[in-house]
Specification:
heterodimer; A: 571 residues; alpha+beta; Ubiquitin-like (UB roll); Alpha-Beta Plaits; Rossmann fold; 3 domains; six-stranded mixed sheet; 17 helices; 24 strands; 26% helix; 18% strand; B: 465 residues; alpha/beta; five-stranded mixed sheet; 13 strands; 39% helix; globular
Chain lengths: 571, 465
């Protein structure tokens, strides 16, 4: 979209200060752009605006219309006409700016509206904050403090409604807490194409309900919990697990597919409690799939690898890192490069892949490959490529068609040409069709992975590699966007981040050059890989930046763009 | 009326001026098309089909016809709100969801003179370019729906509906759509949502002004039954001649529905502004019941603000300013507004001194709490809250402070909702508290201030949820 020209801009006075906005800007967005927050519940920029909560009512004014025959109003020295304030407030979410309009977000009319709406919203609300998961991130609480009167005149019996309703396998509803903003209904209808939610009954007895015989089971159902401004919809997974104010927030990315949804990881004392999508209009909008969001509980698994291990007489025993690395270096040094193959992972970061390329060079390894993961694209946010960094593999590791030569590795082992395999963050038995018998033919197998698996079970040297939540680095998503993965929690025991493991292996093989941080790896990567030229770690920021053109798009975003262009949503 | 005999006991009052209700309660009249045709039925349609569309709209504008549904908006002006250069289909909807308590005029048109409505509607459709029209009939009028369906079939058979009407090249289909029993469906955008098969949640305006973004987001004209009937008569008489009836800016006739504490409640078609409240109550309705005194009148359907019998109203500006008693108020749109209420739907509810104001207000609050659609916060939460307070007032379990709260809740609804239901439910409370505070307070007990409210339902009415 081109920048608006001067004629497309209108002058609007907000709280006494004149600003310019493009025609068609909603009042609520105009206010936000100049740092004035207008409280709201039902309004969401990615959804249609029903204007039902009435929280965003503001006082507005327009130039006075002169009586017939009277002098028209004269502009002041700044060129603006006087404003005649209108006693009837309007909703800021759906009304748009007009020339010479005035908006007041303070003053008796606006503040009276907010107080009134707050009192009415709380009239039948259960006020069970002490046992409500939303407490601490509830806009009803927040606005009540900011805009409410602090006391209620409501003395009647509250309306009783269904509680603890299972609306779907992952979402639970408390109808008494619901403020009928309809965000969840609009989300399931407009974004998820699964309009199973709706209101039944009337007036103050209105209840949110799921269509009889149906359930809220689509793979985006938990987004309704995110956008619910109160504790009406809660996540079965997170419910009663942790008070939100105790948790640490880490801005990072999802690694379950090539889309790389931007997420916030909520953790406390090294344990992840929940993951929620983080807004990025170039990647995942405000949403993420349930399947990706909930795929973190294995991080706390009992089967996590916590120490390096060496296989002695067919049995694994724990070892120190130095011990394990020197055994590995010794065994690898005894082989010629053509006898060594490296299987890296497209789940690894660019930095890890960069270190891997160093290792490959140092060993003169005859073969390097990654494991492909193909699934079905869902037409929204889930990419067919279930690896998060296939584009990184292409760019940094230099593989043209990652995963296409795994059969040659298999036949190499079969024929005895490949005698040693370095497996980085992959499980070849379960995920790449390498049989235990085949791997048994190897003279030497080194495997890193976060969790014990059949491949590590066969390995001579097992090194515990941190999982995605325990490491930092960068990845390139399906559209070619470079994004940062940030460490949310520490790995268990002696776990190391994979880039460290590969660095240490390079060191042990005598090729060390002293890299002590992942940002240093990035700096070297930026110096060597042309596409990264001139980039710094800090430049990438929380929202990433476009790095390469892939010609790929994200369907959910394309639909959002259409809706925005049609004026249906703000976007 | 010359040459027309009416059923015994149902004769129009001499002060009436029957146009739309000409055939209501008429001896020898039935709803069949043959009867209608014998009296010049569909002649105005024939005339209209030979006219320029803009000329028809001009006649309606010249007539100054104001909507008879409640808001009193000029009908001809509404028709011109269809965006110029529109390429989408245009729809016309007849709002026959007559639900405002105290209003019972449209049902008699539907029941006794359906072809009058159809003729007016077909003319209106031709004028605004609608090829598809709906009559939205409330659920509570099952008989009306049958009668209108039959009338549509008859009009079809005679070529007044369908393809190429009377060889004019104009196509039109009219369908009856039945409501499901919700007051809010009378609100035009709620009606449109309902017609689209959804919950009748009124739409926000802007952007959803029906004339631009109505049914299926196409330009849509929504008119009341009585309003559409007048279109036929405007064409018959000519806009200017039609405007000679009634008073300036309050032209034509309209049907008043009088209910409550009068000897002879009923419907009366009068020239707008030509009769006063006193004439309506005392002459047309035979006055109050013996030994009773007038206490209050709700002049335009239950949501209109109440007028106190002993109030003095100042209307007009400057030199035109004059003082009126309730009996002097001419029954027109503008004077009623100047008196602080509204002519609304024409439903006049008379309240005598035997009535408890608390009971009256509670009755109204019950209705609105039951009918609030629940879409937007103030009306959803406020209407039930007001009902719960007046439940307690009626039961003698409220304190004077509750009356202040009641008023405060009404004020928090008024002007802050998506649709006019906010005003409809808050105006009764506001006006009753403003005008009858003493009487309401008299039903309360100061010692109950701050007392706990029992969980038990208070009155039979309270049992309505």
């Amino acid at each position: 979209m081109s920048e608006p020209t001067k004629t497309d801009l209108v002058d609007v006075q907000i709280d006494g200060v004149w600003h310019q906005f493009p025609k068609g800007t909603r009042l609520i967005e105009a206010c936000r752009q100049v740092g004035v927050e207008v409280p709201h519940y039902c309004y969401h920029p990615k959804l249609t605006s029903p204007g039902n909560c009435r929280m965003c009512l503001v006082e507005t004014g327009m130039p006075p219309r002169p009586m017939p025959g009277a002098e028209p109003p004269q502009p002041d020295e700044s060129g603006h006409l006087p404003i005649s304030w209108i006693p009837r407030p309007v909703i800021a979410c759906a009304n748009t700016v007009a020339p010479n309009m005035g908006v007041r977000t303070t003053g008796p009319i606006t503040e009276g509206c907010r107080q009134g709406v707050m009192e009415l919203l709380l009239a039948n609300h259960p006020l069970d904050c002490p046992i409500c998961d939303q407490a601490g991130e509830c806009t009803l609480q927040e606005y009540s403090v900011e805009h409410g009167k602090g006391e209620s005149r409501f003395r009647e019996q509250k309306v009783k409604k269904p509680k603890n309703v299972e609306v779907g396998p992952r979402v639970r509803l408390d109808d008494e807490r619901c403020i009928m903003c309809s965000r969840c209904i609009r989300f399931t209808d407009e974004i998820a194409d699964d309009p199973v939610l709706g209101f039944t009954d009337r007036g103050s007895h209105t209840v949110l309900a799921v269509y009889p015989g149906r359930e809220l089971a689509n793979n985006y159902s938990l987004n309704t919990v995110d956008i619910c401004p109160v504790g009406a919809l809660t996540s079965n997974d997170f419910r009663f697990q942790m008070r939100v104010w105790f948790m640490r927030e880490t801005q990072t990315i999802d690694t379950n597919c090539a889309t790389g949804c931007n997420i916030t990881v909520f953790s406390r004392q090294n344990r992840i409690y929940r993951i929620v999508p983080r807004q990025n209009n170039d990647v995942n909008s405000d949403w993420m799939p349930d399947s990706h969001r909930l795929n973190f509980h294995w991080i706390d698994s009992e089967a996590r690898l916590t120490d390096p291990m060496l296989k002695v007489d067919g049995v694994h025993r724990t070892a120190t890192w130095n011990e394990a690395l020197s055994v590995a270096a010794e065994r690898l040094a005894s082989l010629s490069g053509s006898e060594i193959a490296v299987i890296a992972s497209a789940r690894m970061t660019n930095e890890e892949l960069f270190m891997t390329s160093r290792l490959v060079k140092l060993l003169g390894a005859g073969h390097v490959e990654t494991v492909p993961r193909q699934g079905e694209a869902d037409g929204y946010l889930v990419s067919a490529d279930r690896n998060p960094n296939t584009n990184g593999v292409k760019l940094v590791l230099g593989l043209e068609n990652p995963g296409s030569t795994l059969d040659r590795v298999k036949s190499g082992i079969e024929q005895g040409r490949i005698k040693a395999l370095i497996v980085l963050q992959e499980n070849l038995v379960d995920d790449a069709g390498f049989s235990p018998e085949l791997l048994g033919k190897l003279d030497f197998l080194l495997a890193t992975y976060p969790i014990a698996n059949p491949t590590t079970g066969l390995a001579d040297v097992v090194l515990p590699g941190a999982c995605w939540a325990e490491k930092s680095g960068t990845m390139i998503n399906v559209t070619g966007r470079l994004q940062r993965l940030n460490k949310a929690v520490d790995g268990p025991g002696q776990t190391r981040e994979p880039w460290e493991i590969v660095r240490d292996l390079v060191h042990a093989l005598g090729g060390g050059n002293g890299i002590y941080s992942v940002t240093e790896v990035f700096k070297q990567l930026a110096a060597e890989v042309p596409e990264f030229k001139g980039l710094s770690w800090g430049q990438i920021g929380d929202l990433g930046l476009p790095l390469i053109e892939t010609g790929e798009t994200i369907p959910a975003l394309e639909r959002e763009k259409e809706r925005k262009a049609a004026g249906i949503i703000v976007g | 009326m010359s040459g027309i005999t009416y059923q015994r006991g149902r004769e129009p009052h001499p002060k009436e001026h029957r146009v739309v209700f000409r055939n209501v309660d008429r001896v020898g009249w039935d709803t069949g098309i043959d009867t209608f045709l014998k009296e010049g039925g569909y002649e105005q349609l024939k005339k209209a089909l030979g006219m320029e569309r803009s000329a028809i709209i001009d006649e309606v504008k010249k007539a100054g016809l104001r909507g008879r549904g409640g808001a009193g908006f000029p009908c001809g002006v509404k028709w011109t709100f269809i965006p110029p250069g529109n390429t989408k289909p245009v729809y016309l909807i007849c709002n026959a969801d007559e639900s405002e308590p105290g209003t019972f005029k449209d049902r008699y048109i539907l029941h006794q003179d359906p072809h009058q409505l159809l003729e007016g509607m077909i003319i209106a459709c031709f004028a605004v370019g609608a090829k598809l029209a709906y009559i939205y009939i409330r659920e509570e009028f099952p008989e009306a729906a049958q009668i209108v369906e039959k009338a549509i079939a008859e009009a079809h058979a005679k070529g007044f509906l369908g393809k190429d009407i009377l060889g004019s090249g104009f196509d039109l289909e009219i369908y009856v759509h039945r409501g499901a029993g919700a007051y809010i469906c009378g609100e035009e955008t709620g009606l449109i949502e309902s017609l689209e098969g959804k919950r009748p949640y009124p739409r926000i305006k802007p952007p959803y002004f029906p004339a631009a973004m109505g049914l299926y987001l196409c330009p849509t004209i929504v008119n009341n039954v009585e309003t559409l009937c007048h279109v036929k008569h405007i064409l018959e008489m000519g806009g200017e001649a039609w405007a000679q009836t009634g008073t300036k800016n309050n032209t034509g006739t309209r049907i008043l529905c009088v209910s409550g504490d009068v000897k002879k409640p009923g419907y009366f078609e009068v020239e707008v502004g030509k009769v006063t409240m006193g004439e309506v109550i005392n002459d047309m309705c035979g006055g109050l019941k013996d030994g009773r005194k007038l206490k209050a009148v709700i002049p335009g359907g239950s949501s209109a603000k109440v007028l106190r019998a002993d109030e003095t109203f100042t209307v007009g500006r400057g030199d035109d300013a004059r003082q009126l008693t309730i009996r002097d108020i001419p029954m027109d749109f503008d004077t009623m507004a100047a008196c602080g209420s509204m002519a609304g739907s024409g439903g006049v509810i008379v309240i005598d001194d035997s009535r408890s104001i608390s009971w009256v207000l509670n009755n109204l609050n019950n209705f609105y709490a039951h009918e609030s659609c629940g879409q937007c916060t103030p009306c959803r939460e406020g209407s039930l809250w007001m009902k719960k307070i007046t439940d307690r007032v009626v039961a003698g379990k409220a304190s004077p402070a509750d009356i202040d709260t009641l008023y405060g809740v009404a004020k928090n609804i008024d002007g802050r909702t998506i649709c006019a239901f906010g005003e409809a439910c808050s105006w009764p409370t506001e006006s009753f508290v403003e005008k009858f505070r003493d009487e309401l307070v008299a039903d309360t007990k100061p010692e109950l201030e701050g007392a706990l409210v029992s969980a038990e339902p208070l009155t039979a009415a309270a049992g309505l949820r």
